[in-house]
Amino acid sequence: MLTMNFHTLSLRAVLFLGLYHSGRRSLTSASGLQEPQPHKIAVVGAGIGGTAAAYFLRQEFGPAVQIDVFEPGTVGGRLATAKIGGHEYETGGAVIHPLNLHMKHFIEKLGIPPRNDVPSKMAIFDGKELVFEQSDWFIVNFFRMLWRYGFSFLRMQMWVESVLDKFMRIYQYQQFGYAFTNVERLLHAMGGDGFLTLMNQTLEEAMMGEGFSQVFINDIVAPITRVNYGQSVRINGFVGAVSLAGADSGLWAVDGGNKRVCTGLIYNSKSELIHAKVTSVTMKSRPSKRGNAVNLYEVNYVGESGSAHSLYDIVVIATPLHQGKSDITFSGFCPPIPSHYPGLYHQTVTTLVHGKLNMSYLGTTEPASKFTVSDILTTDSKYCDINSLSSLDPVTIPGGYKRPRASHTTVWKVFSPQPLTQDQLQRIFLSYDSVSETPWLAYPAYRPPHRKTPPFILHDRLYYLNAVEWAASAMEMSAIAARNVALLAHHRWHQQPGKIDQEDLHTRLRGEL
């Protein structure tokens, strides 16, 4: 296990060396103009991972390469919105952590403002009644938590911060051009053996090992994993820590909808968006000007004009290669590349309801006119048939906007494992005039012990970005994987293995200082 303490370097020195290394790599590329450069790169999938990959590939390979992004549906993938009553609302990935540096960089680069913040309050529901309701006063919330759980809530925040502190190392690795060939190596560079241990135990086991009580885990931790991943505290410890970070303060979103980041990245990268479904990738050998054979990848696809195909030097698959998520086939490869990797994706159904909440469903006598809770999380109880219930704000907050109280008709988002029945809708809402349902195979089913994840490298110049989801699924995880794959593609194309699968960044920096 490699122990690193990046705090021994001054911030000024790190920033200076970051600029130095970035410039040096750019100069190396510029001085190597005689080297053959890729002519065409294909990215399959226009979610946050695919569009971020196009952005980073443009950074690595420069302006001359043609980058095509294939997407049969709407740009954004699992970042999506739905329109109700003249406003757009998020149905997919909704929040971004303040330490998500790639996402922060994207919106700064694209000039997209963050969404105006609207104060929120949370409650926890056990299927019969509200077992906890947040107050408007911080000191009241603090003492309520202290009375029921001691200092467990503060200790949980400290534990999550310790994980995030290690997580942040990946940005320094990527700043200096380091890349990793598989998820396990990437995680080890972040957090050493500790992160791999988290992958092989449940969140429940990890937190009990840290001294948290079963009551605290059931009452506080389980509702967070249910709203973020639709799964219990028996998910792996690493994705569990990511989930708990998603309940942190300072969370934000993009004005106009988070999917705007994806469309902006395609535009900024000067990529060509091809509205087509990729059906297969085939290995092809073609003669070059020098007389030797060159291996290319034939991407076969079906669009509005019918079937077609194109040849590419590099291909990045940015869509899950799993049952129910993709049916892309791979031919001509030795050893063969599977169309589906082991593991299943977990279904979460998002239902947007424009209606009035039924307060009796929550088992409270509080008048709806005074109920200001916006997010209702649920415990892992046999009485809970939903994962969460939230009052939604539009993706663009109008001037003077205030979130309506429960006595008014407003837009509610319900997360549930199965589509809501009419009976369920009528129990949750007094009345409603519209219902919009979106079933997502949103995340992998995280069931430790951890099986070996798919590799980032499927073939010589064929890469698989979504392998990272089997560690944790989040917008920032996809962006990190996109940066990693772009660096891998660059180093392997130029036969520069010195920054692949290396964990000696700290040693190198000290040597150069």
UniProtKB/TrEMBL annotation:
Subcellular location: Lysosome
GO terms for MF: prenylcysteine oxidase activity
GO cellular component: lysosome
Keywords for this protein: FAD, Flavoprotein, Glycoprotein, Lysosome, Oxidoreductase, Signal
Essential cofactor(s): FAD
InterPro entries to which the protein is assigned, alphabetical: FAD/NAD-bd_sf (IPR036188), Prenylcys_lyase (IPR010795), Prenylcysteine_Oxase1 (IPR017046)
Signal peptide from the UniProt entry: 1-25
Domain Prenylcysteine lyase residues, every copy: 132-502
Any one Gene Ontology BP term: prenylated protein catabolic process
Pfam family, one: NAD_binding_8
EC number: 1.8.3.5
Catalytic activity: S-(2E,6E)-farnesyl-L-cysteine + O2 + H2O = (2E,6E)-farnesal + L-cysteine + H2O2; an S-polyprenyl-L-cysteine + O2 + H2O = a polyprenal + L-cysteine + H2O2; [(2E,6E,10E)-geranylgeranyl]-L-cysteine + O2 + H2O = (2E,6E,10E)-geranylgeranial + L-cysteine + H2O2
Function: Prenylcysteine oxidase that cleaves the thioether bond of prenyl-L-cysteines, such as farnesylcysteine and geranylgeranylcysteine. Only active against free prenylcysteines and not prenylcysteine residues within prenylated proteins or peptides. Involved in the final step in the degradation of prenylated proteins, by degrading prenylcysteines after the protein has been degraded.
Family: Belongs to the prenylcysteine oxidase family.
Name this polypeptide is given: Prenylcysteine oxidase 1
Biological source species: Nothobranchius furzeri
Classification lineage: Eukaryota, Metazoa, Chordata, Craniata, Vertebrata
